[in-house]
Amino acid sequence: MARYRHVDLSPRLLPVDLESQLVPGTFAHAVHHLVDDLELSAFDAHYRNDDNGAPAHSPTMLLKVVLLAYSQGLVSSRRIEQACRDNVLFISISGDAKPHFTTIADFISRSRDAITSVFGQVLSVLDGEGLIGRTMFAIDGVKLPSNASKHRSGTRAQFLAQAQKMETVARAMLDRHQLNDAGASESNTEVQALERVERMKHDAAQIRQWLNDNPNDRKGTRGTIRKSNRTDNESAKMATDKGVIQGYCGVAVVDSSHQVIIEASAHGTGAEQELLLPIIDACAAQRTLDTLITADAGYHSETNLAGLAERGIDALIADNQMRQRDERFADRAKHTQKPNALHDKSKQPKRPKPLGNEDFLIAEDMSHAVCPAGKTLPRNGKEYILGDYTAIKFKAAPATCKSCALRPQCLRKPETTPSRQVAVLTRISKDTHTQRMRERIDSPQGRAQYGERFATVEPVFGNVRYNKRLDRFTLRGRTKVDGQWKLFALVHNIEKLMNYRKAA
Whose CA is closest to 245, among 108, 139, 142? Predict the structure, then answer.
């Protein structure tokens, strides 16, 4: 018969050196020693226990714990609390303090200004190590959902209509119940109906209270009305490649030398064009006169380019036609994503190639155009401005296109569009910032410089989103979300410092 050692579970006293658990070369060790050297007095403003009350958990300890948790993909305050009780690494870095999850959540949500100070101090350390080159800054952003429901988005008029509908339905259901009530005992169905009436009345009252607390609609930069949100009115409804979300856009400015995040901020808008100039102004202290700013087409606008020119900033901002002009992307169509072969077995019907402007013949005197069906499109008015160009428009009469066999191929919406029109560009209307940027970014030097942007900024977002598992913000309000985004940027920068010192 086999013999085994006895498993002894009797009590014993084992001495544990907590600090020795923080092994040199690890993120925990780097955070532990780096945070100890920082000035953290900015956190003291949140405490009022100088003379009365119990001692609070040290901000130094809480900052170490949160940074370590974020580095391991632990975003939930409850999971961080559990780690401080069960994980020896967290026990060591916290000194076995066991902070409650409400303490952790409160520390993260209220400390944006203090976190900004810490972010600046860490940048100074990185700069002292020579990790900030200031040759090129790459700007990009990521749209992430927050602790807000997209189903509670709308304008004030839409919210008012919702409340009125709920109240109307509740009154109708209540009247119907009273009419049918003959004094007999209520059935389960009737009880459920009354409970539903109370819920609708309660929800309608909540909407009306929100309308009273928020008397104005949100406005965009152009004065247009933006949808508000009754869960988090500072968040925004945004379109992403994975659908529509309710959240914030986290923007980062990354130095090309060692991929250090120079500036990080969260914004409640999906319109990235609005963010370029404020972001550039925020990192002005880190820029030099020779620093090149790069950003993708989401940040491109004539207004932004004019603002960059006024500030004397060297920049390469792509437009949405850049790749179409680049011969290197001529065969990109064959690399587009195909339907999932495991789920879609049917042959997709081929749509006829739509007729473009190049399929129309333009008369030499610019008096008319001839369509592929041989019909004449007369000139429609004088030259007009089309973007940065002047153009001439040709438009067919509705009767000409009504019975044309090529109508489905010629019109994008043949069921609603009466006739086809064609615009022919004649000349550039004026020398614009957009045109000058196109010429520069299409040059060999511009392509080479802009090509460095992708290798600079994309790995940073890959590290934060996938390695650190940041798939959503857990807070509400721009100030709180901005602080959380800066904490993740801090984690990334501390990793850069740790890896640099490890390699040195």
Answer: 142
Q: How does DSSP classify residue 485?
A: H
At position 389, the amino acid (one-letter code) is: Y
Q: What is the distance between the alpha carbons of residues 491 and 66, in angstroms, rounded to a whole number?
A: 10
pLDDT (average), residues 192-200: 84
Radius of gyration of the chain (CA): 31
C-alpha separations of 108 from 66, 77, 99, 483 in Å:
8, 9, 13, 7
d(CA 144, CA 468): 14
How is residue 379 annotated by DSSP?
Answer: B
Instruction: Pick 13 or 469 by higher pLDDT.
Output: 469
Give the pLDDT band (50/70/90) at residue 276.
Answer: very high
Contact (Cβ atoms closer than 8 angstroms) between residue 492 and residue 262: no
Burial class, 74, CB count within 10 angstroms (exposed 0-12 / middle 13-18 / buried 19+): buried
CB 369, CB 362: distance < 8 Å: yes
Half-sphere exposure of 374 (CA within 13 A, CB side): 1
Rounded to an integer, what distance in angstroms lies between the CA atom of residue 31 and that of residue 494?
Answer: 7
Higher pLDDT: 68 or 13? It is 68
How far apart CA 278 and CA 287 sit, in angstroms, is 14
Of 255, 251, 284, the residue nearest 143 (C-alpha): 251
Of residues 266, 310, 268, 264, the one with CA closest to residue 286: 264
> Would you state the structure tokens that stand for residue 400, as one six-digit string?
């000409």
